[in-house]
Amino acid sequence: NPNPLRRLPSGSGISGNAQAPNGQYSNKWKSHVIAGTPGPFAVDCFNGRQSTCLWEKGTTSWFLSHFHYDHYIGLKKTFCKGKIYCTKITAKLVHHILGVPLERIGILLLNQPVAVQGVKVTAVEANHCPGACMFLFEPAGERPTLHTGDCRLTPSQVRDKMMPVLSKVRSQARLILDTTYCNRKYAHFPTKEEAAEAIARVISAEVASNPRVLVLVGSYTVGKELVFFKIAQALGRKVYIGANKRRVLKCLDLPAELRALATANDMETNVHAVPLGYVRSQQRMESILKHYKNKYSAVVAVCPTGWSLGSSDNGAARSSSISNNNSFISCKRKGKVVTYSVPYSEHSSYEELRFFVDWLQPVQVTPFVKLQDQEAFAALLAIASNK
Hints:
alpha/beta, eight-stranded mixed sheet, six-stranded mixed sheet
């Protein structure tokens, strides 16, 4: 998940009012450790000195929110520091892709509390990528902590998937929050479904005007699948998926109708799923087009990321939108390559963060991602204190 901000290596100092045991390292890495838990528990923390220090101090319960590299970095098949807790899909990926033995993995079912070292732990839907979850920790005699990992907190998702579990800790919990888009520049995103359907319509029009285009759709190791499947469905075609991504898809428990859309034959379809970095590189796309020069005359690329709303690329080749109905989609044309950027976001917009904090009313908010906009985060804290 290539986010230029990513995890906080240490506490920001903004919300440092929680007193946890083992303070010398809990305070330093407080966005990864859970106050009041044995060890303490660690979330998305497998790399370097931080992980080693926690292990030496007694941490044996490790939690992985989802299978993106910046969260599992440092996790290897030789892991022997206790047990990793995650959802079933993430467990499959950790085992089949990284080679971590199954006996080192504990599977958490969504909305079903379990006891881990005497602490009540509940995995909650995160609406991020397949297998992603939030963790609600409820240690006896301590305040509960909700760690969101990475999440998309749309009002409908909060109402339908999160409120039933989290209502009991309103006005009580510490919150460690995915602050990727805690910036007023990213106030609103379309829902993932709206974004995927909109770009599918745009790509359908491009293919209708030139059937000899190669459609390249950017995706992560895990995530963005909805975009290329929607495009394939709109075109009535399959989507070519390379070997590495196919290994991942086998772990995702996809419905049969989506599995049927995937092909390992790159010549069978003009819709290809590629790493997101490919559709950000003009040189790479031109190279791919050259490879298929006898079959295709142009490339139409799809770059699905929330960062597209804040792009500073406002050159003459770029238009701010492609139509009134799809005003959030931008287009850049250069040579034989057309790139559409769509704010398909698997992280919360700023207004979604405000909505969630206002509803949960946490007693403390700790950012999980380096802050771009201190004033925007201060406004979240003000909402949380408005009880």
